[in-house]
Design a protein that fits this description.
Elements (H helix, E strand, L loop, with lengths): L6 E5 L1 E14 L6 E14 H10 L4 E5 L5 H12 L2 E5 L8 E6 L6 E5 L10 H9 L2 E5 L9 H8 L5 E4 L13 E2 L3 H7 L8 H15 L3 E5 L5 E5 L5 E3 L12 H14 L4 H17 L24 H10 L4 E6 L6 H11 L4 E7 L1 H8 L8 H9 L6 E5 L5 H7 L3 E5 L8 H7 L4 E5 L7 H10 L3
Parallel strand pairs: 1-4, 1-8, 2-6, 4-5, 8-9, 9-10, 14-15, 14-17, 15-16, 17-18
Antiparallel strand pairs: 2-3, 6-7, 11-12, 12-13
Helix pairs in contact: 1-7, 3-4, 5-6, 7-8
């Protein structure tokens, strides 16, 4: 049984298809590209994608939606059931909505929309009961009628568990009392056009006005690569920057954000904690390829490969291929101090790309004793990555970074001048490809060990 609490998703489900192929010529009939079809990938879209992503988090998920009795509706239901999503189908007149994107991988040339527009069936007892037992409710509104169904709205308004509402300009207003409403920046402008500008203060005022109008406990405005602005109560807004991984395909990022936030609230997180978790999850989702890499058939979806920006080894390889100078340095960097920063800046000045080889927690304990490190390896790596002079960080477990250097193959291995009288085993490794060891000035009186000792003396 899952340790995560159940989420109920309510909203419009679409069938998304990617028709992939190659374009190598123009049509003789008209000056348009010819797509030679190679593969077709299908996946749930809209509320169906939000439900699929929540289920992939490992939690029980029920989806209340409206599907037509056609082949597209049957395909959607089968895909969702295969991934553990319980589907409560209200029925839909007409055809199940579909979105077809045609083009080479990663570059759609045309989108074809069809179906949708039919009346949604009445909410049944099963749907109303599901809304009652969900530990959190996510309304993923795509403006096609499910969120406007009167019986569903009445059940949502009476829900005792947190309601997250992802609104749509063509859909109804969220029910009063929603725990979190998650419009994106463009949607927030449509809902509240009375404020000019896109700066954080303006976005916060817009969100606060929407919270009052909708009687919502909190409103978060997602701003793509610029992060999220959260208004939660009368205090100052919380701004959460997007993570560096937020540089891929943004399709479906809103569904990933809302489904993660709903799951966090279901598990008892505070609203700000839920939003922080959702930003991290959405950033990773975008970097991994977005909805296009999250097809219902995981085996058929391409495995995301790390980009040079995400993988220091790949980045070093790309830099070498471009004729740039790759520099590497290493150490524990337990408590970052001015001596570390000066050394790292000096190392970066030696070339075009600096990768830090960081001792893991286990190797720091072997080098410095059981009381170290004071700061865990992932936190140390995060601080280093935040420095403008650092292009990447690789964590290693061995006593020396020789194995990592074999993968990085830097032109220069930079160390502090306090190593001047020591034989560096890394020098022999670098000789294998003509790399050099360079010593950098050492800032006297600055060390993590000394900071820790002084803190202990003063009882800090």
């Amino acid at each position: 049984m899952s340790a995560l609490r159940p989420v109920v998703v309510v909203g419009d489900t679409l069938l998304d298809r990617d028709v992939l192929g190659t374009v190598e010529r123009l049509s003789p009939d008209a000056p348009v590209p010819v797509l030679d079809e190679g593969a077709v990938r299908s996946r749930p879209g809209g509320a169906g994608l939000a439900a699929l992503l929540a289920a992939r988090d490992g939690r029980p998920v029920t989806l209340v939606t409206a599907l037509a009795g056609d082949a597209a509706g049957a395909e959607l239901a089968a895909m969702l059931h295969a991934h553990g999503v319980e589907v409560i189908d209200l029925g839909l007149e007409g055809a199940t909505p579909e979105k077809l994107r045609l083009g080479p991988p990663g570059r759609a040339l045309l989108r074809l929309d069809r179906g949708g527009g039919g009346a949604v069936g009445a909410a049944n007892a099963e749907a109303r009961a599901a809304i009652g037992w969900g530990a959190a409710l996510l309304v993923a509104d795509y403006g096609r009628g499910v969120a406007a169904a009167p019986d569903l709205r009445d059940a949502l308004a009476r829900a005792t568990h947190p309601v997250v509402w992802d609104p749509h300009p063509r859909g109804p207003a969220p029910v009063p009392g929603a725990a979190l409403v998650t419009p994106n920046a463009a949607e927030a402008k449509v809902f509240e056009p009375g404020f000019a500008g896109d700066g954080i203060p303006v976005v916060a005022r817009r969100a606060r006005a929407l919270a009052r109008r909708w009687q919502a406990a909190a409103v978060s405005v997602t701003r793509g690569a610029r992060g999220v602005v959260l208004v939660d109560g009368p205090g100052p807004p919380l701004t959460v920057p997007a993570e560096s991984a937020n540089s891929g395909d943004p399709c479906g990022a809103g569904d990933r954000f809302a489904s993660c936030a709903a799951g966090a609230l279901a598990d008892g997180a505070a609203t700000d904690e839920a939003v922080l978790a959702a930003v991290t999850s959405a950033s990773a989702f975008v970097a991994a390829g977005g909805a296009g890499a999250s097809g219902a058939d995981e085996a058929s979806a391409p495995t995301p490969t790390p980009t040079p920006a995400d993988d220091p080894v790949a980045r070093a390889r790309a830099a070498r291929a471009a004729g740039d100078i790759v520099v590497a340095t290493g150490g524990c960097f337990d408590l970052l101090h001015p001596g570390h920063v000066r050394t790292l800046q000096a190392a970066r000045a030696l070339g075009d790309c600096l990768v830090v080889c960081l001792n893991s927690d286990a190797s720091v304990r072997e080098l410095k004793g059981p009381g170290r490190p004071v700061v865990a390896q992932e936190d140390r790596a995060a601080v280093l990555r935040a420095l403008g002079c650092v292009d990447g960080v690789v964590i290693f477990d061995e006593q020396t970074p020789s194995a990592v250097l074999e993968r990085l193959r830097p032109h220069i291995w930079a160390k502090g001048a306090d190593y001047a009288d020591r034989e560096l085993p890394e020098a022999r490794v670098l000789a294998g490809w003509g790399g050099e060891v360079v010593l950098l000035p050492f800032l006297q009186g600055k060390s993590s060990t000394r900071i820790i000792e002084e803190a202990a003396i003063h009882g800090i």
